[in-house]
C-alpha cells in the first residue's frame, strides 16, 4: 500500500518531459479560422472549401518585435501587435486591416512602396457564385494604421486568388508581384496540355511589374503575357515559391499546381521574361501539389524544392483513399502533353546546372524519409534545433476527406443522386457522412546526410488538427525561430522554440533602393568552415509569409565565421565574425568569385540522328499486379572496332518497329551511319555484343531480343547472328539454334578454352508468368561460328525458385574467374534472386556456388553487374545495380519484400500478390480495385474499401492457396559492392547517392587516371506500377574510387555528368587522338556522349 502510494506520488510529481516546441497560451492572440458549412458554402459548391488560410509574421511598427497577421476564410482577419514577453495586442480595427469579402485565403507582408514600413497584401475568392472576396493591399502609414490602396497601386484583383509573392523579378530595385490563382473544375479545365496557353480572367496567374523606379510612383502593370507566364484555367495554383535555383543571382519562380496540370518552374531570362522548364529540369513532380518551400536543405549552397501532396503514411488510409491513376490513364495524360506526376511529397534536390544551362533536380523524398505525410499543406525548411541543418515542418489535416473511396462510391450512386435531387439539391446531410481528416503535423529533424528523422514526438508535435498556413519568426527575440499555425476550425497555434543551441540572427537592409528589406538577397554563411545558405523571401509554405530576418544555427559555436551576401541587384559583400543579432546595411565590397575546378566529363553533341522509339505495349494491362514491365529494357548497345581502323564503332538496337544500326566512327567529325538492319526491325533489341565468332580476326555481332510481348515461339525473339566481312559490312547467319526467349543479356566467352568464343544468353521473363524462372542458355561454338546448346551445363545445380533447376529471372551476367583456378565462372543477377555464382568445373559444367561464396541471402531486384578486381587485391569483386531506395518498397532480411505467385482464383492464369512492409507490419501492396480486378472472387470479401483497410496476406490468400503458391523474396534493394576475400564475398554499402535510382548500367574504368578503378552508374525506371511511382532521380553518378574498395560520390555539379532519362547501357569508346568518350543508350531517348577530359 505504502509502496503504491509512493510510486503514485513520484509519478504525479515528475516534471513534464521537455520538447523542442512548447505551445504558448495567454498570449493575447485569440483567433480561430472557423468555417461554417451551409447549402451555399461547402466543398460541393467550392472544391477548396477546406483549404484553410494563411498567416504572416513581420515587424509592422519597426520596433524590432515581429507582429502577426492571421487570415480568416469567412470572418475578420486579425493583426496582433507584439508587445514583448509573449504578449500580443489585437489592433485590427484600429489598424483598419480586417479584410474584405466572405472568402479570404493568403497573406504576404512586404514593403511594397519602399518607404521602410511593412505593408500587407491579402488574397480572396470572388466573382464566383456567392463568393465576394477580393484582393487588398494595406499600405502601412507608419502609425499603426493602414490604408487600402489596391486599386490605386494597380493590384486590385477579383477572382480565384490563393497567394501573392513580392520580389524584384527585373532587379531594378523595386518589388514586383506574382499573383497565384487557382481554378475550379469545369468542362474547360480538362483537355490537352496546350490549354495552358489560353488565358483566363479569373483563374489565371498574373505577374505585375512595379513602376516605382522608372516613374517614382508605386504603380503596377500586368506583364503576364509579355513575361511568358501561363495564365490559364487549368492552373490550379496552390503554392508559390521564389528563389534563385540556377545560381545566376536572378530570382526564379516555382508554382505548385493541383490535379493534372504541371507544376511550373520559371527560369528568369534576365530580360523581363521567363522560360518554363519543369519537364526538362525534373523527372516528375507531386501530382496534387499544394504548398512548397525553396531552400538549401543539404548545405551544398544550392536551392532545393519541397512540395507537399496527400499521400498518407498509415496503411488504412492508403487503402481507403483515392491515389494514383491506373497505368492506362497515366499513359494517357503523358500523351496529352502533361508531365510525369506522383501522388506524394517531393524533395527535389538541386544537382546544379547542366550544359544546356538547365537546373537539374532529383526527387529523393522517399530515401529522405519525408514522402508520406497525409493531407499536407505547408512545408517549411527551417533550422529549428540550431544544429546548422534545416529541418522540415509540415502542417496537416482536413476537416473531411473528399477522396475517401467508400464515400465517393456512395455519393456517386444513382440512388443517392436521385435522393439529392428529390431533396431540392440539399447536400449538407450527405456531407456529414464524409470521413473526418484531422491528423497530426510532422516535424522532421535533418540528420545531415540528406535524410530526415520523424522527430514529431520529441518536438511535441502530437495533436491531431487541421493545420494549414504557417509562418516563422523569432517572436520572443531570444534568437531561435518560433512559429504560428493557422488551424482550421481550431484555435491558432502559437509555438515557442526551446532549443538550447545558439543562433546568429541577420537582418539585411538596403538603404539605396526601395527594396528596403533586401528581398531576394542570398547569404552563404560559414560556421567552423561549414556552409549554410539562406535567402530573404517572405512568401513561403502555404498562403503565408515569414519574417525577413535570417536565423543561422551555430550549435555550440559562438559565431558565424564569415558570410557572403549576394544582394538582389547582383552586388556582393563579405562580413565577418557575426554574433547574436546583427544588422547589415548594403555596402558593396570587392569580391573575387572562387574559380570552380574543371569537371571530369563534358557533354559532347553527337550529331547522330538516332532516337530510340519505344513501342506502345503495356505488360501491366495483361498482368495487372506485376510491379514493373520488361517492355522498356532496350536499346541494345555494343561497342567495338568493326572496320579495323583502331577507332571504336557501335551498334544500337531499336524497339519493336525500329531497326538497329551500326555507326562508324570517323577520324574527324561525327559518327557515320553504317548498315541498317531493316529486315529485323520488328524485334525488340535488348542486348548485343561484338565478338569474333568464326576466328577471322574481325568482330561479328550477336543481338538478342525480348520485350515481354510475344507469347509464342517467334522469330522476333530468336537471337540473331551477323557475320562481318572484315570491312564493317554484316550479313545474317541463318543457322543459329532455334531458341526463343525474352532475353536480357548476351555474354561471349571462350569458357571451355578450346580457342573459340561461346555464348551465354540470359532470359528475364516469361509473358503471363512473371515470377517464373525462364530458361537461359549456354551455347557452344564449334570453331566455325556454328552453335549447339549445352544441355547439361548446369550439372546438378539447384536454385532458390519454383523451378529449382533454372537460375531465375536473369537480368545480367558476367564471366570471371572467381576463385583463381584458371576457369571462367559465371555471375548472374536478376529479379527475386540472389547474386548467383556458377562455378565452372574441370569438365566445363557448372555448380551453383552461391551459398559457398557467401551470397545466399542477397536476393534483390537486381538489374546489372560489373565484375573486376575493384580493390586491386588480386581477386574479382562485384558491383551490382539494384532497385534502390526511391520508392514505397523496401526490403530487409527481417522484413523482406515478397511476391506470391499462384492461381488464386482457379481460372488457369497466374496471379501476383506483392507484400511489403509499412509501419512494422506486412501488407498486400495492391489497392482493393487492383486486387479484385485481378482476382474477382475477392470482391465479395471486400465489398467496401473499409473492409480492405487493415488486410494482411492471410486475408487475401488462404493457407491452402499460400501452400500451393511460390514465394519470391528480396532481402535488399541496395546497389552494392561485394568484396571478394579469399573466395567469400562480403557486402559493402555504396554512397547514399547510388540508392536514389534503379541502376541499369555500370562502367568501371580509371576515369581520373589516379590508378584506382572508378564507377559510372546510369539508370532510372518509369515503366512501373503507378503506385510504385517513377524512379527517375538519376542524372548519372560518378563514384570516385578510393583505396580498399571505397567510393566517393561526386555530384553532377562536380563531375559534369548530367544524364537524364532511362539509361539502359553504357561503355567507354576509344576515339581519335587517344581520347576517350563515354556513350549512354537511353530507352525512348537519344544516344548521349560525354568526353572524358583527362
Helix content: under 10%
Rounded radius of gyration (Å)? 31 Å
Major sheet details: 5 strands, antiparallel
> Beta fraction of the residues?
35-45%
Structural class: mainly beta
Q: How many helices?
A: 16
In the predicted model, the low-confidence regions spanning at least 5 consecutive residues are 1-14
Distance between the termini: 81 Å
- What overall geometry do the principal axes of the alpha carbons give? globular
Q: What is the β-strand count?
A: 78
Question: What is the mean pLDDT?
Answer: 95
Structure description:
There is one protein chain. This protein has 1094 residues and is mostly beta strands. 8% of the residues lie in helices and 36% in strands. It contains 16 helices and 78 strands. Strands 59, 60, 61, 62 and 63 form a five-stranded antiparallel sheet that branches. The radius of gyration is 31 Å and the shape is globular.
Quick recap of the structure?
This protein is 8% helix and 36% strand. It has 1094 residues and is mostly beta strands.
Which secondary structure elements does this structure contain, and how are they paired or packed?
Elements lengths: L1 H12 L7 E3 L31 E4 L8 E4 L7 E5 L5 E3 L1 H4 L8 E7 L8 E6 L1 E3 L2 E2 L3 E5 L5 E3 L1 H4 L7 E7 L8 E6 L24 E5 L1 H4 L4 E3 L14 E7 L8 E6 L6 E5 L5 E3 L1 H4 L3 E2 L5 E4 L8 E4 L7 H6 L6 H9 L5 E2 L3 E8 L5 E5 L1 H4 L7 E7 L8 E6 L1 E3 L4 H7 L2 H9 L5 H4 L4 E2 L1 E2 L1 E5 L5 E3 L1 H4 L4 E2 L1 E7 L8 E6 L5 E5 L4 E8 L12 E6 L2 E6 L3 E2 L3 E2 L4 E6 L4 E7 L5 E7 L2 E5 L15 E4 L32 E4 L8 E4 L8 E4 L7 E5 L8 E7 L8 E6 L14 E5 L5 E4 L8 E8 L8 E8 L11 E5 L5 E3 L19 E8 L8 E9 L2 E5 L5 E3 L11 E2 L2 E5 L8 E5 L15 E6 L8 E8 L2 E4 ...
